Amino acid sequence: MPPRGWQWDPTLFLGTAEYYERGRLPYPAGLADALSGALGLDGYGRLLDVGCGPGSLALLFSSLFQEVVGVDADSDMLAQALARAEEGGVRNALWVHAMAEDLPLDLGTFRVASFGASFH
């Protein structure tokens, strides 16, 4: 629950979605392999990526799960995530427009939840 009086500003990241990844340090090349090994991932189960932005982690991990679900409060970020998924042929991704504070949203159960660079 957000602090009393706090409200999400939907213009906070306005115009940044297209450039978001260029302005952030990339995740290490071996991150997906490390996660898979550490958690014994086998292509089954679901990933919840909270604050997914343009889908950076969700898309990186998409081959490790049956389904990845990205949640973000910014609709432009989700549009970018969808475009990137389509460009990359990722078909097991679902993008949900919501704030993390609104979870669980009846999205079901997940094997893994990620929060990559999403605590601002």
Can you describe what's shown?
- The protein has 120 residues and is an alpha/beta fold.
- It has a domain at 45-120: Vaccinia Virus protein VP39 (Rossmann fold).
- The protein is built from three helices and four strands; from the N terminus they run αβαβαββ.
- It has a four-stranded parallel beta sheet.
- The chain is globular and about 45 Å long.
What is the structure about, briefly put?
The chain is α/β, with parallel strands linked by helices. It has helices at residues 31-39, 56-61, 75-87; strands at 46-50, 67-72, 93-97, 112-114.
Q: Give the oligomer, counting copies of the same chain as homo and different chains as hetero.
A: single chain
Q: Count of DSSP helices?
A: 3
CATH architectural designation of the domain at 45-120:
3-Layer(aba) Sandwich
Distance between the termini: 15 Å
User: Could you tell me the radius of gyration in angstroms?
Assistant: 14 Å
3D shape: globular
Relative helix content: 10-25%
SSE string: HEHEHEE
Global mean pLDDT:
92
Q: How is the largest sheet built, in terms of strand order? A: 3-2-1-4
Low-confidence stretches at least 5 residues in length (pLDDT < 50)? none
Count of beta strands: 4
